[in-house]
Specification:
There is one protein chain. This protein is an alpha+beta fold and 98 residues long. Strand 3 and strand 4 form a beta hairpin. The chain is globular. It starts with 7 loop residues before the first helix and ends with a helix.
Length: 98
């Protein structure tokens, strides 16, 4: 569970609610569904965020989340949506929930 024990997200104030507030309603809903379906194939937590991969199509989407503060999360993903807009995408939400 995010924000518990030795989870690095707890040190930064990053929780499911933080992701819910940072992402659009659609991105959070789709990301939660990807997470619940087991589409996150890799997730590695660090002290300032996480990196991971989400299964999708021919190749996985690579995701990096950097938590600058509880209200400032930077997401980078190889998906077209994030590449064009920089917004937190469903893949970033899924890795953040992992």
């Amino acid at each position: 569970m995010p924000g518990k024990g030795n989870d690095p997200r707890g040190m930064t104030g990053w929780t499911e609610e933080t992701l819910r507030a940072a992402a659009s309603w659609k991105a959070f809903k789709e990301g939660k569904s990807l997470f619940d379906c087991g589409s996150v194939s890799e997730a590695k937590m660090g002290t300032t965020g996480c990196r991971g991969a989400v299964k999708g199509g021919k190749r996985p989407f690579r995701v990096s989340l950097i938590v600058k503060s509880p209200t400032d999360i930077e997401a980078r993903c190889s998906c077209p949506q994030n590449q064009s807009s920089g917004e937190i995408c469903a893949h970033a939400v899924a890795v953040g929930l992992a």
